[in-house]
Amino acid sequence: MVRVPVKVGSAKFVIICVGLLGFAVVANFLWASSSSTLTSKPATLVIPKSHNNASSGRFLSAAYADLDAPQLRWQKMAAAPVPRLDGAAIQIRNLLFVFAGYGTIDFVHSHVDVYNFTDNTWGGRFDMPKEMAHSHLGMVTDGRYIYVVTGQYGPQCRGPTARTFVLDTETKQWRDLPPLPLPRYAPATQLWRGRLHVMGGSKENRHTPGLEHWSLAVKDGKALENEWRSEIPIPRGGPHRACVVVDDRLYVIGGQEGDFMAKPGSPIFKCSRRQEVVYTDVYMLDDKMKWKMLPPMPKPNSHIEFAWALVNNSIVIVGGTTEKHPVTKKMVLNGEVVQFNLNTLKWSVIGKLPYRVKTTLVGFWNGWLYFTSGQRDKGPEDPSPKKVIGEMWRTKLKLNE
User: Fold this and answer.
1) Which tens digits make up the pLDDT trace of 272-282?
2) Is residue 14 one of the residues assigned to a domain?
3) Where is the secretion signal located (predicted)?
4) How far apart are CA 122 and CA 397, in angstroms?
5) 293 lies in which domain range?
6) Residue 358 CB contacts under 8 Å (≥ 6 apart), including other chains
7) What is the total count of domains within the chain?
8) CATH number at residue 287
9) Among residues 188, 245, 196, 190, which one has the least CA distance to residue 218?
10) 25 in helix, strand or coil?
């Protein structure tokens, strides 16, 4: 018998081929086994973390990363006497009047605190009328009188009131005004051409957007009419918008459609989550009483009705909320300061806040941008809301005209 000689290199090749074939068979078995297991469970969407904001210590999913912005130097000032969420604030010269708001979901404030920008102190607390709403207020001033319109009466997700009041800030005296035709939550409110304008907000069930627009002639804290007049409806309804008048033009910025509602049958009107749509829309009411769309905000933003200040012919907005996270469905807070230049009609992101926060109460005095109160995030890596705060912060702000 003749043996055929086999080269060592050929033998190694055969062994390698057999090994690869065996590995393929085992891998195919394992894949089939694991895929049959996975198909019995619902798929999980995993959004990778974005590291485009590593310098700020914030790591969010790519879809909800903070907007790029320069760091601002914030100084922590004296905190407000009480924490408040969904409160209201009006600045008159060097004083910031801070109204109402939730202390907790089960407790609401019914007084006014006053911050003095000159000496950076709180003081001068006084009570609100017992019939006045405690949150989701419409509010505006003519420089002395503060007009307070509608809002939610009580804690949790209780119903709204149509009651309307005016405060004389020099005497601290309150006066009634004609009630709004229908109660609303957080309507856009401004004084324009001698009339008190109230637009949008949420309807009586707290969720359905209102489109109605009413106005009332007022002067020196008094109503000149007994009834509100219907005006051109706002193109898109909903609460929690900034409303600003500059150079005889009325602007309505941001906001949302939908809000939490009272749980059906709940004796305490317990808040229950509902679908919300936060938007970037910016509208202007022009000389001909027609609505015009302007360039949208850098990203959807709501809960900003008292989060703005006028600086060098720009509207500066501090914090807010954006669209809910697509996986967790939790609210996502904003942590930026944005600017709308009224000369160029362009938006800019001009700085970061110490943390993400909504329903801030904002003032501007002697070159300093201030904000207080609201509800902040859970931390750098979690933009959902947690703690209701009373902190006061300020930063030096200079904008190009």
Assistant:
1) 999 999 999 99
2) no
3) none
4) 22
5) 77-396
6) 302, 303, 319, 320, 321, 331, 333, 334, 374, 375, 385
7) 1
8) 2.120.10.80
9) 196
10) helix
